[in-house]
Amino acid sequence: MKGFATHERRWASDSVPGDKVLSAVSSPESFAVASTDGAEEFVEVTLDVQEDDTIVLRSIEQLPAAIFHLDQDASSESCGSGTSKSPSVRRSSSHKLRQFSHELKAEAMAKARQISQELRAELKRFSWSHGHAGRASADGATTAIDNALAARAARKQRAQLDRTRSGAQKGLRGLRFISTKTANGVDALNEVQSRFDSLARDGYLCRSEFAQCIGMKDSKEFALELFDALSRRQRLKAEKISKEELSEFWSQITNQSFDSRLQIFFDMVDKNEDGRVTEEEVKELIMLSASANKLSRLKEQAEEYAALIMEELDPERLGYIELWQLETLLLQKDTYQNYSQALSYTSQALSQNLAGLRKRSSIRHLSNQVGYFLEENWKRIYALTLWFAAMAALFIWKFIQYRRRSAFHVMGYCLPTAKGAAETLKLNMALVLLPVCRNTITWLRSTRLSRIVPFDDNINFHKTIAAAIVVGVILHAGNHLSCDFPRLISSSEPEYHENLSDDFGETKPSYGKLIQGVEGVTGIIMVVSMTVAFTLATRWFRRSLVKLPRPLDRLTGFNAFWYSHHLFVVVYALLIVHGQCLYFIHKWYHKTTWMYLSIPLLLYMGERTLRFLRSGYYSVRLLKVAIYPGNVLALQISKPPGFRYKSGQYMFVQCPAVSPLEWHPFSITSAPGDDYLSIHIRQLGDWTRELKRVFSEACEPPVAGKSGLLRADENTRKSLPKLLIDGPYGAPAQDYMKYDVLLLVGLGIGATPFISILKDLLNNIVKIEEQESAISDYVPPTDVHIDLATILKATQRPKWTLKTTNAYFYWVTREQGSFDWFKGVMNEVAELDQRVVNY
Question: Is 50 exceeded by the pLDDT of residue 496?
Answer without folding.
Answer: yes
